[in-house]
Amino acid sequence: MEVNGSASNSSTLGVADTPGYLLVLKAISLCTIIVMAVLGNLLVVVSVYRYRKLRNITNCFVVSLAIADVLVSLIAMPFNASVELSGRWMFGHAMCDVWNSVDVYASTVSIIHLCCISIDRYYAIVKPLNYPLVITERLVVMMLTFVWVFPVSISFVPIFLGWYTTAEHQLFRAENPHVCKFVVNRPYAVISSSISFWIPSTIMCVMYYFVYQEAVRQAKFLYKNASAASRSQIAMNGTISPSRKGPLEGEDRAGETAQKIRHEHKAARTLGIIMGVFVLCWLPFFTWYITVSLCREACPCPDVVVVVLFWIGYLNSCLNPLIYAYFNRDFRDAFKQTLQCVFEPCCAKAAAERSSV
């Protein structure tokens, strides 16, 4: 989400005064973030498409989230980078509205995706018996449709119709075609930030609080059952043979359930970390956004701080694939195999030979 404030006014002077090596360093940094975000999220999409093990309901939301991050990376980031490197807006009023709309839209889509994922994890762990009855394919389609359609109401519609800003800013836009500022009025600031961040974040925190409590309860339950099974076996046999290679009878009965619970917990942990990183990346921006929008001139903020807040938020789009690769073994293995197929020309032939055997 973009609120370009006074940064665009002073950006031309700032770029002119910036040493060449710093400008090159800035260009490399911004381009690196953009390329990593695009390639990383495309890797997520391709990996889920290629590997059947990753095709589940939760990963439908993960793939859709990756597509939203690709949208941010291909449209919102390059326009912002062009302003930061050139010091001026070069694409006219219409593209300025498109840029701001996509920025607001994609950011809102991303966080509502995470909100849906938190609800999915809540039912998978806290209400596992109800999960297949509630989280059906039809409901997932409805949720994804809502995620992609609803944010239009706070992005493209109010921005293209001019409802988001003030009359003074409309006059400023007409007189300054080389400045793309996103100055919002107070009602739009409150409504858009609530829908885009504050309400979904609150829902996510509540959902993961219940998930955490249930995870702790289940961990204690599994520990007690394993201990009880061990004591029962010892009481029946008198002792446990050191040469026993198989599992205890009680452990064997509970093994499948325990494995399923651990799998759900790992998925919840990975997605919980993604949620936490998203909040950490966007909380500073939205705090600044609502504060500056409500108190106006009474809350000045240096331009460099505004730029840093934007790109910390954008950085989130390239962090999710790294989180999958580090914390989720299934994604990590899929990423490795996908990258091997990209960088090893003989991979496809070898795979065909293996499948024919």
UniProtKB/TrEMBL annotation:
InterPro entries registered for this protein in UniProt: GPCR_Rhodpsn (IPR000276), GPCR_Rhodpsn_7TM (IPR017452)
Parts of the chain that traverse the membrane: 20-48, 60-79, 99-119, 139-164, 188-211, 270-292, 304-327
Keywords: Cell membrane, G-protein coupled receptor, Membrane, Receptor, Transducer, Transmembrane, Transmembrane helix
Any one annotated GO CC term: plasma membrane
Topology class, membrane: Multi-pass membrane protein
Pfam families associated with the record: 7tm_1
PROSITE patterns registered for this protein in UniProt: G_PROTEIN_RECEP_F1_1 (PS00237), G_PROTEIN_RECEP_F1_2 (PS50262)
Protein family according to the UniProt entry: Belongs to the G-protein coupled receptor 1 family.
Protein name: Octopamine receptor beta-2R
